[in-house]
Sequence to fold (144 residues):
Amino acid sequence: MAKKKVPKKAKRRLLVFGPIAIFVIIYCAFTLVTTVADLCSLKNEETNLNNKLESLKTNASDLKTEITKLQDKDYVARYARENYLYTKNGEYVIKTEEKTKEEKKQTKKDETYIIYACITATILIILFIIIKHKKSRKKKKSSK
Fold:
């Protein structure tokens, strides 16, 4: 097979237009990647904003119902007694302490630790009994 000889003009064209073509291809690829990344971030932002819009709509409807409830004098009186400890004549307020969320979580953690400790102790006792039982069987067999 004989090698084809490439003309000088073709080599010059390749030398001039090759880097330009590579630059254009890299620029297009970079633009495509950045556009896709921007599109993904905009989609995420749209989803977040739609969720926020829904929560604001439900909040607005809750506030509208609260406004209509606050027009009723009996509701306002009951609301003030429950939330601000107002009393009628002859009533007494007995305030009880409510645990905060952190205290409830800590209590729950403590309860789980106690449960784990009880389970571990039970397993250790069972293992101790099994081992002792096996040793006593061996002693009985060896004494016979």
Summary: The chain has three helices and no strands.
